[in-house]
Amino acid sequence: MTLVLNEEQRLLKDTAKDFISRVMPVSALRTLRDQKDALGYKREHWQQMVELGWASMVLPEAYDGLDFGYMGLGAVIEESGRTLAASPLFSTVVLGSTIIIEGGSEEQKSALLPGIAAGEISLALALEEKPHHQTTGFATTAVADGDDFIIQGKKVFVLDGHSADQLIVATTMESGIGLFIVDASASGIDRRRHHLIDSRNTATIEFKQVRVNKSSLIGDAVQGQNILNTAMDYGRICLAAEMLGAAKECFERTVAYLKERDQFGVKIGSFQALQHRAAKMYIELELSKSVVLDALSAIDDKRADLPQLASLAKASLNDVFELVTNEAVQMHGGIGVTDELDIGFFLKRSRVATQILGDSSFHRDRYASLCGY
Amino acid sequence: MSDLDQFRQTVHAWLEENCPPAMRTPITREEQVWAGKNKVFPNQDAKLWFERMRDKGWTAPEWPAELGGGGLDERQAKVLRDEMKRLGCRTPLFDLGIWMLGPAVLEYGTEEQRQQHIPSIVRGDVRWCQGYSEPGAGSDLASLQTRAEDHGDHFLVNGAKIWTTNADKADWIFCLVRTDPDAKKQEGISFLLIDMDNPGVSTTPIELISGESEFCQTFFDNVKVPKANLIGELNKGWSVAKSLLKHERKLMAEIGGDTPGPSFSPVQAGIEYVGLDSSGKLRDHGLREQLVSHEMAYRAIGLTHFRSFEERMNGVADNNVPLIMKYVGTEESKRKEEVLMAILGQRALGWYDDEFNADELLTNRGWLFSKALSIAGGTSEVQLNIIAKRVLGLPT
C-alpha cells in the first residue's frame, strides 16, 4: 500500500498534464460537440495518446504491454479529467482489456491485446439495460445452438459503443453470466449513437439473434460474474481518478474567479460565506485524493478489499464532483450558466460520470453490504 | 529484510514480552495513567507497563535519547505505534507535556531548559496543563490580557485563563502572557512556564454538559515567575504558541485514538441495537445510510492521515494537508457520536441508572463531550478561515 507516486509515475503525470492541456483542452471537446463529430473523439489525439504509451500501460509485457500499473494509468486519467478529454482509453483499455486479461483465452489475448496496445483495436462493454447501473441479472441472453451461441437483447448507455471495433456483451446464460466478444459489424447488430449532455460517446445497441462461435465466450459462465466484477471495479476506480482531475480543475478555476471578481467594491473571495464553502470543497478534494490513490494501489497490489475501495472511491468522487460543479456554477454567478464558460461542461460531465458504473446510493449500499451490514 | 522490517520484528517481540495482557484491553477513563508528582496507578500491571516503556524512552519515542526519549526516527516511531495498535497496547502515559509542550521546548528551549524539562516529561514526573484561552477571548487567542511584568529577576503575573484542561490536577502550566501591552496584538506575547505551587495560583473546575469537569479556570494573583522559565524570545511567544497549536490540532485530529468510549464500534452497535433484515442489511435503511456515510468518511480520513505521513517520508509533503485534519477529524467525530446516539435510540438516553449499561452511558457522555472538539483548539470556523486564507489564498 502506498499513497504517493514514485518518481517515474510523477514524471508520467507531468508529461500527461502537459500533453493534455496543450493538445486537448476543453475547447477540443467543445469543437467535437459543435461539429456533431461522428466519431466523438479525434483519431489523431488517440494516436498520440497511444504513442505516449497510455493504451499499453497496464497490459502485460507478453502482449506488447508496458506492465506499468494502475497508479501510473490513474495519474494519466486524472490529468485527462482536467480537460474532459474524449478518447476510447476508458472503454477500451480499462474496461475492455481488463476483461480480456482476466478471463480471455490465449487465443483471445493474442488476437486482441497487441492491437489494443497499438491503438488499432477499440472495445466497448455492452452492460447496462436499465435506467440505473446493473451488475447482474441481464435480460440479454446467450443461448447455445450447436457450436454457436445466439445473443438476443438490447443494451443501453454503451460507452464508445457506436465506434468500437469489438463489443463485449454481458449476457445471461443457463449457468451464469456470459461475456462474449463480438465483432461490431456482425450481422444482427444495430447501433444507435446518442448525444448526451456531456458531449461524449454512448450508444444503444440491439443484438437481434446475433450468432457467434463459442470461441468468442470469454472464460466461462461460472467465472463470468467475477471477471465482470473485476472490470467494473477497475472501471469505477479509474473513472474516480478522472472525476478527481475534473473536480480539481473546476475547483481551481472557481477559486481563481473568487480572487478576481469584484462585487460591492471588494473581491467576492473575501466573503466568509464563500470562503468557508471553498475551504470545505478543498477538504473534500483532499480526502478524495487519498481514496483514489489507495484504490489505484489496491489494483496494483491485487488487494482483497478492492471492491470496498472501488465503491468508496466512486461514491466519494460522485459526491465531491457534484458538490464542486454545483458550487462552481453558483459562485460564478450569471456567467456560470452560460455556454461560453467551460464550467457548464464540467457540470454536465459530472452527472454522466455519476451514472457510469453506479451512483453514490448504489455504492453506499454495496459498501455497507460488503462490510456486513 | 529491510532495517525497518527488522526493527518491526524487534519491537513486536519486545511488546509481546513486556506488555502485560491486562494492558492490551481497551482502556477506561479511570485506568489512564497521567503524569505527575503523585502518579496514580489503577493496578500493578499499569505501573509495570509504564515503567518498562519509560525506561525504553518510549513514552516519547521520537525525542532524543540523550534527554531520555526513545531516539526513534519518524518511520520507526510509526512502526512502534502500529505494532502497539496491532497488539492493542494501551498508551502507558498521558500528559500534555508529551503531546504539546515537549516538542516546543525541543524546538525553542535553551539547553538548560531542555535538560530541566524534557527528561522529567519523558519520566512522567510532572503533569502539565495549558494556559492559552482567556475568559471572553475564545478563538481570538491573540487578544489575551494576562500580564507578565518585568521585575528584574522575575516576572509578576496577573490575570486569568480558561479551559485549562485538568489544571486542578496539574503540577505546572505553560502559558501565553502579555509582556508588552503597547505592541500590536500578536507581537507583545511571551511563552512562560509556571509552577502551580507558586503562591497566587488558584484553579476552579467548570462543570460541562457531559457532567464532567475536566476544564478549569486558573487565576494568577501576583505570581512571581523566574525569568529562566521564559521559552523562546521575549515578546516572540506567538511563534512558540503556533508550533504548539499545530501539535494540539494534530492530536485532536487523530480520531479513534485512546479516548475511552463504548466498547462497540458504530457498526457493531448497529447490528446489536437495530438488527439485520433477511438480506443482511440494517433494518432501518435511513440509519444504515447515515452509518455508511460516516464509515466511508472515516476511512477516507484515515487514508489521508496515512498519505500525509507518506508524503512527508518521501519528501513530497503538501504542507497544507495537516491543516485540514483538525476540522475534518473533529467534525467526523461529532457525526460518529450522532450516529451512535441514533443507533442506540432510547437506550442512549440514560443519565445514571442501573437500567443502562456502561456502554450506553458512555455513548451519551461521548456525544456530549464531542461537542467540545470542534470548539477547543480553534473552532471549526477558525479552521475554515485558515484554510481559505493560507491554503487557497483568498483575499481578506
Automatic annotation (TrEMBL), chain A:
Cofactor: FAD
E.C. number: 1.-.-.-
InterPro entries: Acyl-CoA_Oxase/DH_mid-dom, Acyl-CoA_Oxase/DH_mid-dom_sf, AcylCo_DH-like_C, AcylCo_DH/oxidase_C, AcylCoA_DH/ox_N, AcylCoA_DH/ox_N_sf, AcylCoA_DH/oxidase_NM_dom_sf
Keywords linked to the UniProt accession: FAD, Flavoprotein, Oxidoreductase
Matching SUPFAM superfamilies: Acyl-CoA dehydrogenase C-terminal domain-like, Acyl-CoA dehydrogenase NM domain-like
Domain Acyl-CoA oxidase/dehydrogenase middle per the UniProt entry, residue ranges: 135-210
Repressor keyword on record: no
Keyword Magnesium listed: no
UniProt domain Acyl-CoA dehydrogenase/oxidase C-terminal: residue ranges: 223-366
One term of GO molecular function: oxidoreductase activity
Residue intervals of the Acyl-CoA dehydrogenase/oxidase N-terminal domain: 6-120
A family per Pfam: Acyl-CoA_dh_1
Family, per entry: Belongs to the acyl-CoA dehydrogenase family.
PANTHER family: ACYL-COA DEHYDROGENASE, ACYL-COA DEHYDROGENASE FADE28
Name of protein: Acyl-CoA dehydrogenase family protein
Organism: Zhongshania arctica
Taxonomic lineage of the native organism: Bacteria, Pseudomonadati, Pseudomonadota, Gammaproteobacteria, Cellvibrionales
UniProtKB/TrEMBL annotation, chain B:
Protein family per UniProt: Belongs to the acyl-CoA dehydrogenase family.
Cofactor (UniProt): FAD
Designated name of the protein: Acyl-CoA dehydrogenase family protein
SUPFAM superfamilies assigned to the protein according to its UniProt record, in alphabetical order: Acyl-CoA dehydrogenase C-terminal domain-like, Acyl-CoA dehydrogenase NM domain-like
Domain Acyl-CoA dehydrogenase/oxidase C-terminal: 235-392
Domain Acyl-CoA dehydrogenase/oxidase N-terminal: 4-125
Any Pfam family hit: Acyl-CoA_dh_1
UniProt keyword annotations, A-Z: FAD, Flavoprotein, Oxidoreductase
Gene3D superfamilies the UniProt entry points to: Acyl-CoA dehydrogenase/oxidase, N-terminal domain, Butyryl-CoA Dehydrogenase, subunit A, domain 2, Butyryl-CoA Dehydrogenase, subunit A, domain 3
Ranges where the Acyl-CoA oxidase/dehydrogenase middle domain occurs: 129-223
